[in-house]
Amino acid sequence: MWGNIAIAFLLAFIVAFMATPYTIKIAKKVGAVSVESGSRRMHNREVPKFGGPAVIIGFLISVIYLVIIMSIEGSISLFGVKEYGHKLIRIAFRNYSYYNYRNCG
Fold first, then answer.
1. SS3 assignment for the chain
2. Best exposed site among 9, 43, 75, 84 by fewest CB in 10 Å?
3. Residues 89 and 59 in one domain
4. Are 29 and 18 within one domain?
5. pTM of the full predicted structure?
6. Alpha carbon distances (Å) from 58 to 9, 81, 83
7. Which residues contact 76 (CB under 8 A, 6 or more apart)?
């Protein structure tokens, strides 16, 4: 189990590390950069402010890896007797529909 967690951590790190240059390119194309001017200037060049997607992609890949490995090993059963997968989907959509309903009116 701890080996799988270590692999998931390394996988998240590697994916985030590899995705960061692409998110920097996207940030420059979209214009999500910080251009500082004035007396409080800290950087001499544009600084991209779009690192979140790289971290989120790394996290999601590692969670998907852990879910697949745990379901193969039998540690978790998403669609078995306890139906964790159905419960998670039901909770997610119940909360979404509740907030969507509250914000409509």
1. CHHHHHHHHHHHHHHHHHHHHHHHHHHHHHCCEECCCCCCCCCCCCEECCCHHHHHHHHHHHHHHHHHHHHHHCCCCCCCCCCHHHHHHHHHHHHHHHHHHHHHC
2. 43
3. no
4. yes
5. 0.66
6. 9, 30, 26
7. 67, 70, 84
| 26 against 77, higher pLDDT | 26
Q: Residue 104 belongs to what domain range?
A: 77-105
Determine phi and psi for 35, rounding to 5 degrees: -110, 105
Number of domains in the chain: 2
Q: What is the pLDDT of residue 58?
A: 94
Nearest residue to 50 (alpha-carbon basis) of 14, 20, 17, 13: 20
Answer with the residue of higher pLDDT: 65 or 98: 65
CA gap 74, 64 in Å, rounded? 15
Q: In terms of domains, do 69 and 104 share one? A: no
User: Which burial class, exposed, middle or buried, applies to 54 when counting CB atoms under 10 A from its CB (0-12, 13-18, 19+)?
Assistant: buried
